[in-house]
């Protein structure tokens, strides 16, 4: 066995050795492969690593060299010219940060045909801003902004001098003006001059806001302020726009008789883009001739204000579509097929309301179930959804509705499942709100009402005898999930994402309103001591989830994604067990990838009955910790290396899940760990993902080898393969 392992390792290492040898042979005499690039600083506390992006030549990534196309790229050959230019770029970057007397030293180390390059930065002491002066040549703008008042200035004496600080002030003033009618203003009309005194580290700044020039040969004049005279809605498809006029007004953030606003223009584009009935929108402006002529004491004079018309051209989508989608299924080796037919109307009431009706059917041939007559699984469902592109609620003002980018959603569905073990019917209906705040990268969700009714019309005698009625094998969690159940919940969700940090938070509770009503009106109590509505017990619980992801982008090709997620759900009052749909599970493509879906936990519990383990391997608490290094390979292919950790636990000590209860002094010993590699095919609009995970630490073990799988790996026991769409987090 030892010889076999050595042979396998040798075979895996062979391509690396061949690649290494061939790369060295390709290097001409007197030239070197760039092996390593470092950027360091001789000043403590200075973040030199952030400036590596200014180095023009970087070493070729090594981690995924096995998967790279050997013909896609030659080795990176060290170039002295590029190195000198990199030194200049690094120097400029430090000066832009306020280190005006900075310097850069380059050190190289050669070993064979390879070279390591180290850029040593000498930032020195940063310069600060001294006296600040604003010179505004346009009197009307000066009267509008009052930049001679320090309270209206963003740049303050004593601040560190950086180019970013100056540019932020230019953008701030430009934004104020373009949002107050100055249609043709841009930040190039603002310039800075700086004066320094020898031996001192403060800089006197003067901001110059210049007059308007149409071109280099045109005379300087005051900037023109524009007001919107008329807003016209035009169709690109026909003479008639298939949307109600009030819907067009609600989507238009610009206003007649008000100054032009760049922010309102962008909101108008965003609002129309949200309308499902609209394919695209084009907004143009036309200046009204001689609109700056005003009369004063019988005399005509020029005004700085002019008028312009806003023309909004709208192209609409086809109002109705029908889509057919076939599927192939494989559940634990049982093959099947499914198909769905979806009808969508994107403009139901001429207000871009979207109605969708989906019919779905599924069939699966089930084998290996002894004692059951029907060996097949069938499922039929119908779901209807109506989405309004606005808040649909009383007591909301028209201005509030226009300002918010919201959706209101009404949905209802009926699902019929027939299995050899049982028949199940699920009815659901909900009323939800969704709205966003793009400026703050926020998205909100409020589930005002979400009703679910689960009805079990038939359970086979074999299933009852083996799992539900047998006193020696009675499973409380299993039994609870095969009883009729009524869930009435309310939920709230918040999402934040700025491309670097992402947070998702969800809170929901169920049964509290029914609990209050049941006590007031004396609802009936069943044999298990649960209060019932229409002779059906209702669920009562509270649930909280939060996920956080941080993306560290090293360069255009390489990044590290860090993720942490925690969830807690607590059944109380009318429930001692969470409904199955609300319980947590671990393992799978988006969790600890060394395990399959629902194969991990809770705690150190180890499943013993494959037919019902999917019920037992669920819990009330979930923890996920992930680190994933991502790199671009070639063409559309990307690679990943990951380490996952986590598990689930129960809050109560359930007899059927021994070792699954969360205990503060033991849970950290039950955290599972996995590692692996991934391959992705990135088509921008969607990502196909293949992840190969291996168990490293298994909390549900029978032997030492199972526990420390990283030391004693066994492919058929520890390997899991996952295929998914999209990134894991």
Plain-language structure description:
The protein has 729 residues and is an alpha+beta fold. Helix content is 17%, strand content 41%. Strands 12-13-14-15-16-17-18-19-20-23-24-25-26-27-28-29 form a 16-stranded antiparallel sheet. It is globular and about 95 Å long. Mean pLDDT is 87; it is low at 1-21, 63-72 and 294-302.
Look at the helices and sheets and give the structural class. alpha+beta
Taking all residues together, what is the mean pLDDT?
87
Strand order of the largest sheet: 12-13-14-15-16-17-18-19-20-23-24-25-26-27-28-29
Shape, principal axes of CA atoms = globular
**Percent range for β-strand residues:** 35-45%
> What distance lies between the first and last C-alpha atoms, to the nearest angstrom?
39 Å
Distinct helical segment count: 13
* Main beta-sheet annotation: 16 strands, antiparallel
Computed over alpha carbons, the radius of gyration is: 33 Å
Count the strands?
A: 29
Approximate helicity band: 10-25%
Poorly predicted residue ranges: 1-21, 63-72, 294-302
